[in-house]
Structure formats: C-alpha cells, structure tokens
C-alpha cells in the first residue's frame, strides 16, 4: 500500500484545486452549525439559513464549489461533527476518528483521490489532537487489501486517497506533530492489518523475521532471529513443541530499540505470532478454521508498534519479541498427555494441543525477562475463544499483576478507541492449572478460560510488572466503526503506541 501524502497548506481553501474539499462543521448549543473559518460557498450559508444543514454528527452536505474555486474543485463536502461541548475529551477524539472514517468512505464513494481537509477549531481539543484524530480516522478508514484480487484494469477504479492537504488557521507546530503522529500510528495499524490479511501460506514465521530486519535497518534498531537450532540449544520447549507437527520453521523474532538516555526504562512487548492455528492433534472444527490465519495478530501489533517506536524515538527502551510458528497436526506433532519443559524449566502437561498460544508465549516471556530485565512486560495474543464469551467483540480482555500498569493500559486503550476491560486473576483461578504429573497443565478445565490462560502466562513473568491483552475478540470482527473496516482491525498497535508515547517512570 502506498502511503497517502499529507501536507499542511496555508493557501486559502478557495484556491484548492482537487477532487474534494472537506469542512468538518461542529454544532452550536442552539442546534445551528458553528461558523466555519475559511468557508467558501454561498450554498453552505443558504443551506444553513434554510435549516437544511445543522451540523449534527454525520450529516453531510455536498456542494459544487462557488465563486473563485468553482472551476478548481470538483466537490465541497460539509460534514457535521455534532455538538462538541458536552462530551469528554475521549468521546470527542473518538468522534473525530469516526468522522475521519466517514470522510474516507465518502471519498471512496466519490472516487476522490486528492482532498483538502479544513480543520474545525474546537475549544475542547487542541489543534494537534484535532488533526491527529481526524487524520487517523481517514487513514484507518481508507484501508483496503486487494493484493490477491485480479487486477481487472477497470478504468477509474478507486485505489484510495493519495493526497491530503490540511488547512487550518491554527498554529503550525502542534499541527505538524499531530499529522506525524496520525501517519505513524495509522500506517502501522494498516500494516498490521496487511499482515493479518495474508493467508497462512502468505505470512509465515520467516515473514515476521524479514519485516523485523527491514525495520531494524530503516530505523537503526537491533534485530535478532532465533531459529530452531538456537531454540533447541536454549531449551525453549514450548515453541518447539507447538512447531513439532509443522514443516514450516519456527522463528523467535527480537527487535530492540535503545533510547539515547542511558537511564531510560525498558518495556518488553511480546506478541503471539501463530501464523495458522489448526489446533494440532486436538484439531479445530472445519467451520471457520480459515479465520485462524489471524492468530498472529498479537505479533503483528507488537512488531508494528516498533515501526512507530523506530520513527519517533521515544525516551524509553522498547524490545519486541515475537514467537512465531504455525500449529499443525503432522506426524511428529505434540499429543495430549505429552509433558514439555519450558525455557525457565517449568514442566507442563499438555491437555489440549489447541491451547498452544500460551506455550509459545511462555518461552518468549521467560526469555525476554531473563535477557532484557525489563521494567514491565506487555503481551498481546489472540489467546482464547472464551474472551469473546465474556466481552464480545467490543473490548479486549486485560489481566496482569500490577495495578498501576493495568491502569496505564486501560487509559491508553480508551484514548485511542481500543477499549479494554480488566478481568481478575485470583489464586483460585491459578489452582485450575495445577497438574497431577507436571508443574502445570495447559488448560484450566471448565470455566474462566481467559483467566486460566493468563494464569499460565503469569508463571513465566515472576515479579516483573506484567499485563496480558487477550485480543481474540477484537483483532478481527471488532465492533463496527467508521474507521475500522471488516476484517482485521490492527487492534493493539495504537494502544501500545499511546502507552509508549506517554511513558513515565513506572
Ligand atoms: N487461537 C485460539 C483462540 C481463538 C479462538 C482466537 C477463537 C480467536 C477465536 C487459541 O489458540 C485456542 O485455540 N484456544 C482454545 C483454548 C482451549 C483449548 C483451552 C480456545 O479458546 O478454545
Ligand atoms: Mn489454538
Ligand atoms: Zn491459537
């Protein structure tokens, strides 16, 4: 996907020559649209006077250019933002993102490639946050994945917005920052969606390694890829066990960003990179199994967040580890009843080979903590179907051992439209994974599947502050939003980015 070019323009919107000039129009307390700076066109004023356009949320008025710019611009869109004064900042940010998503879908409808975005001035939101959230919505909403579609060469086929000129009367400094932030985060989320959209035979463990090496080169970070031989030497019994039934080589992909500040803290990200989950010998039912190509969304989120880290160079060290393999039922596959030994020496009785995510994460967590002594760990995984039972497709499940860190993640997710919900992790749940023959077992029996999965992971993090995000319900099929098309959502990327951008000593 070619990135959309975004620039800041100071030339009056009247002079914009392109496909679509967009005004985002907030609504006053009296139900009338606020006056819009830079507005061109008597059509708008007429529509307002007649009461045809009130600026309510999502209301659109399409006009065709007036006066000076009649000959220049094809269409002018006035898009209602609704009332902005009574909402919380979070709600307003979300509204702007949704509005951005609406702009993207209108642009698609109109085949508008070259657009000019006139920013509203919102007292409640800084110029930086206004432009950031609107652009994020546009870029996320303008996503498409057509790599495997026959190029039918249909003339006039819309392939996305190519250029956005942002116009505003506000100060430039914050605007630039907002534009950059939106571009980094939205592009990263779209790349995560691309990875997820790739089928199991298109995105393999080696693909994760390739992408990480590319990022390392681009942003001067350090990339290490462990293969099967190194895993054997390091006794990573979890990832090796899951890979046993496959003919695709496993990889443990490590990407490290080091901040300039020698005193900077270190955040470790671990993402489940299961490139296809058949369930293994405990085979999944056929219906819907194709969706298990999405089982690598946690890994995609972690590595794509590193793209933003590399570009923005925050004042915190960040290490991402992606254990990557598929889960296949080949002749040498792991069997129910088998006992494996993890990297940290903990033994585990395999009850169900379909509970494989925790096996690969366990090694990655223990290895990452031992090698990088992070100040905190965040892991992301499409770990359990049970999280869909508890939270549906609206919130990511969140568990952890450190309430301040949990709070940070909750706030980060809330701020970017990726809401999370904390589940408990009491010792009663931990007991559910006690085994008669090994230290632990890989399923917790009936009830609280998301929690017992987290309890398994907790055995590998020790005292390090840790949170686990179960994104099985949100990585795809996420709540419908204007800026989240159907298919993979890229969830987690922007939450991690928000957490890292606001990092303060934990
Ligand atoms: N990748 C799945 C979890 C999953 C299921 C994600 C449905 C998205 C939608 C995971 O590896 C898995 O199979 N978990 C099992 C665990 C069980 C065997 C204890 C599950 O949730 O059924
Ligand atoms: Mn599974
Ligand atoms: Zn899985």
Describe the structure.
- The chain is α/β, with parallel strands linked by helices and 506 residues long.
- It folds into 2 domains: 5-142, Leucine Aminopeptidase, subunit E, domain 1 (3-Layer(aba) Sandwich), CATH 3.40.220.10; 185-501, Zn peptidases (Aminopeptidase).
- The chain contains 14 helices and 18 strands.
- The chain has helices at residues 42-49, 89-110, 127-141, 172-197, 205-219, 228-233, 237-243, 297-312, 357-372, 386-391, 403-415, 427-431, 449-458, 493-501, and strands at residues 5-9, 20-27, 60-63, 75-83, 114-118, 163-167, 222-226, 251-257, 266-271, 273-277, 317-327, 339-341, 347-349, 376-381, 396-400, 420-422, 440-441, 466-470.
- The strands form 3 sheets. Strands 7, 8, 9, 10, 11, 14, 15, 16 and 18 form a 9-stranded mixed sheet that branches.
- Helix 3 links the parallel strand 5 and strand 6.
- Helix 7 (237-243) runs antiparallel to helix 9 and helix 8 (297-312) packs parallel to helix 14 (493-501).
- The two termini are 37 Å apart.
- Bound molecules: ligand BES, manganese (II) ion (MN) and zinc ion.
- Ligand BES is lined by residues 277, 295, 352, 354-357, 382-386, 443, 449, 472.
Beta percentage is 15-25%
CATH class of the largest domain: Alpha Beta
Counting DSSP H or I runs of 4 or more residues, the number of helices is 14
CATH fold call of the largest domain: Aminopeptidase
Q: Return the structural class.
A: alpha/beta
* Overall number of strands: 18
Q: For the record, what is the CATH homologous superfamily label of the largest domain?
A: Zn peptidases
- From the coordinates shown, what is the CATH architecture of the largest domain? 3-Layer(aba) Sandwich
Major β-sheet profile: 9 strands, mixed
- Structural Rg: 24 Å
User: Helicity range of the residues?
Assistant: 25-40%
Mean pLDDT: 95
Bound molecules: ligand BES, manganese (II) ion, zinc ion
Name the overall outline. elongated
Report the uncertain regions: none
Number of domains: 2
Separation, N- and C-terminal Cα atoms:
37 Å
